[in-house]
Amino acid sequence: MNKKLTQLLLAGVTALIALTACDDNTATLGVEMMPKSDLVTKTYQAYDVTTESYPVGDAVLARTNKSYLGRFTDPETNTTVMSDFMAQFHNDEGFNIPTTVHDDVCTRFDLRLFIDEFVGDSLQSFKLSVYELNQPLDPNADYYTNINPADYYDPDSEPIAVKWFTLSDRTITDTERWDKSYSNNILVSLPTELGTQIIRDYRQHPEHFENTLTWQQSGNPCSKGLYFKLEHGDGAMAYISLVQLNIFYRYYEDVISRDTVSMASFAATDAVVQATRFENTNLERLLDDTSATYLKSPAGIFTLATIPAEQINVNDTINSAKLTLTRYNDQVDSPFKLGIPKTVLLVRLDDYLNGFFENYKTNDSKESYLATFDKGTNTYKFENIARLITRMAKEKQEGTATENWNKVLIIPVEPTKDSSGKIVKLNHDFSMNSARLVGGQGNPLKLEVVYTNYK
Prior knowledge:
The chain folds into two domains: 44-55 and 283-454, no CATH class; 80-280, no CATH class. Helices cover 16% and strands 39% of the residues. By secondary structure, the protein is of the alpha+beta class. 34% of the residues are buried. Strand 18 (407-417) and strand 19 form a beta hairpin. The strands form three sheets. Strands 2, 3, 4, 5, 6, 7, 8, 9, 10 and 11 form a ten-stranded antiparallel beta sheet that branches. Strands 1-13-18-15-16-17-14-21 form an eight-stranded antiparallel barrel. The protein has a two-stranded antiparallel sheet with strand order 12-20. The protein starts with a helix and ends with a strand. The protein is elongated, with a radius of gyration of 31 Å.
């Protein structure tokens, strides 16, 4: 190999080594080429956020596919929640009662209130009265948890049924209770003559049973709906997933067969109105407690926060803005203590007052955000609300700020997700939950803001 060729090969290897070294570390390439005056810097700043408890007044949108029945006193706060409900019944198209029913007579007429879950002592006794509604609930209307049932039934009328019950049915055997096919429910017997009236109306006017609307307008017993009024009891709250109205009868399947027992059913589902009423008592002590704030559901207390957006420097880019709410541990040890809200919504106060839930809105990560409870740190963390506080600050600068321009609510919510995990609906959380949060008078939270700017 001649000397010139050797020199060329050595030069190529040197160039390759230099190129490889450059590829291994290009993180600062752009910065090294920029003038020093353009270097990016980050600045951290913490701002005080004041919070207070916000009374709901028992009036939140009662849009839920469950109903609630019971009365429960929280052992931690000594506050009490009472709930009962009104429900209508859906009539499936194709409703049918055989023509061979014995004398068109109902042999049994009952209601079953299926219990999804409950809070409290399942052996506590309750008294329930069932009344017929004298006018149907409007399926296009919004109903709130402070609804007055007296507007829909006659308080001076007699109930069509009265039932003493416990959430754990003691009238059945343990073998039946633990059978896999058993679903916990409250059974309420109704007068059979009312069921007979429905069967005979079906025989004379089958058009009354074509769909839910014709059923509700038929004038039949229970067709406008029922009010399930809690009369007496304390110590438990049932979450009712389904109410079913059942008409039993005996009929012949054919002329030579033995008679058979069957039934026709109507169900209270999300296709019709279910309006739950809540009454919270003894909340005043919590609202007067300025050493902390509270989240209490159902329909009890939210937390109101005031964001110091006027202090935010919008001339620099806000890289992140984190707000953390810390929960105090319970002070009372009880087997019946309430749960902790799992998911909370941060939303501007004006947006909430102007129909956030009524308009089927969900979190948009611009003016509304979700946070889930972290058991490990005992906190709710809103990791980055930068867009929100930037918008607040600009509204103040531009003179478009409203009276509540810098106020947000923290609200317990129940999200509904589609098959891909995307949140498609947000409702108020009606579970029996409570949390005492760090905050209140003289104890501000910290809004942690990181600015990004250029020198």
